[in-house]
Amino acid sequence: MWFLYTDNLSNLIVDFEYLSIKNLGELGKEAHLQMTETDLVDAELQNEKYQYNAWLSERIPLKRALEDYRDPQCLRFNYSSEKRVTVSIVIAIQQEHPHTLLRTIYSVITQTSPHLLKEIVLVHDGHPDIDLIRHIHHKFPIVIQLDMESLMGIIQARLTGASIATGDILVFLNGHMEVTRGWLPPLLEPILLNNQTVTEPIVDAISKESFAYQKRVEPQQMAFDWQLDHIFLPLDQHSWNSLPKPYPSPQLEGRVFAIDRKWFWHLGGWDEGLRDYGGDALELSLKVWQCGGLILAVPCSRVGIIYKRDELEAQMAPNRNPSLQVQKNFKRVVDVWFDEFKLHFYRYNPKLRNLTAESLDKPRDLRRRLNCKSFGWYRSQVAPQIRNHILHAGLTNYAIGKIMPFVAPHFCLSIKGGFPVIRKCLQTNFEDWTLTSRCQLKHGNMCLYVDYINNVRATKCTKKLTKNPWHYNYQHSSFVSNGNKCLQIDVNKIGLILSACDSQVTEQRWMITNVQEFKQDSNRHVCLSVSH
Fold this sequence. Notes:
Layout: E1 3-4, H1 37-50, H2 54-57, E2 87-93, H3 98-110, E3 117-124, H4 130-139, E4 143-147, H5 154-164, E5 169-173, E6 177-179, H6 185-193, E7 197-206, E8 213-214, E9 221-224, E10 230-233, H7 237-242, E11 247-248, E12 257-260, H8 261-266, H9 280-290, E13 294-305, H10 309-314, H11 324-337, H12 342-348, H13 361-369, H14 375-382, H15 384-389, E14 399-401, E15 403-405, E16 411-416, E17 419-424, E18 433-435, E19 441-443, E20 446-450, E21 456-460, E22 471-473, E23 478-481, E24 485-490, E25 495-500, E26 510-512, H16 515-519, E27 528-529
Parallel strand pairs: 2-3, 2-5, 3-4, 7-13, 22-27
Antiparallel strand pairs: 1-4, 5-12, 6-13, 7-8, 9-10, 11-13, 14-18, 15-26, 16-17, 18-19, 19-20, 20-21, 22-23, 23-24, 24-25
Helix pairs in contact: 9-11
Enzyme class: transferase
Protein name: Polypeptide N-acetylgalactosaminyltransferase
EC number: 2.4.1.-
């Protein structure tokens, strides 16, 4: 249930600008202030609650100006959207800091033509701030506020907001964003040319510590692997040469995007079985592409976001996600949209195979009714780069599981502070490693590498081919890199070293929990070898 906030509100209005300091954080510059001990305690408490520096946010003007971050070529484009379309902005919030949300609203209103902006639908998902509601009601007649009464989750809150929106095009935002100059017309133009297009701006970061606006340097395509980890791909040559024109992207990031309202509901919105958060961006991306639409990233539109911990965790790969509900959400998406390729997903995520989920009859019926294409078509036509290198059907290129030394089988290889460590195994999948088709030994987004003096370290994985690839040798159960050097446990220091391979050295032998099923495959990749 939800109800609409109307005029029956007190006239007592809180001034949310009484702490603001003129020009602090202006033009997206980082902000710093001297703090007392009391300030530090207050800031720490607010940071724990809101997951960013809310204390500083209270002191940055609500109407701060940002620079124009667009490519200069964008200024040459002419857009016809102002005379032809209206827009509803849908913002769903949970426990959002008032000043940060108000800065989002002010940025939308000041950077958007009134001819385009029909309404802002703001959905309070659980525990609304009455002072904030009164302030918004008094200051912004264009904002329609809804209260979900009980906590329903961001996906359901967005659906509720979209259900009362009346604009021709829906634009979904989060409550801790700032839009920049000229952000909206470039998102609308491709939709006016083809109403089955979904557009997404380039999403820049706003520092959660200093509120500095941090421009993303290079346009990328978002995609995913079999574990549903997000990966970012370089643009193909045609898209690169056409910049800053829009380019296709296999997946939405999902935090901010524009879609034709009628087509959104034609697609069924989001699956009503998706709860809380997580999996919604992947579901809508597959639905759009497989059911006749396309997704375009739009370089001439830029929006900044504070990346909150909860939202990042919601988009974590399900096999590493601590939330059971998020795991169930991703499982629903896979079971509806992956067709026979879901077997490959479950091979990497065996613990999710037996999760129970609500009935899938409605989303499957919708897919049949819309005559949507197969996941095989999506792999070959939408994402050929990831088909060839990541979403290939021959999974012999990988081994996955916990990595344990023979000399200490109750201990697992892990990472701490940028260094590989050996520690007692946990009863979770947070210690799973993948030997990728690029011969990378990968843990989450970190990869083992060998430095110039043969030390074994961990660093953030790249999409480039590694100079020192890893190979797993079945015969000797060893990891080989950098010539004929093997990964070896240093028993005295409970650490890792790289030593000359010797099949008689037990400290060089390692078990991978799920490697046996890969060993039986006939098509072995070079990363899985049978001899040194």
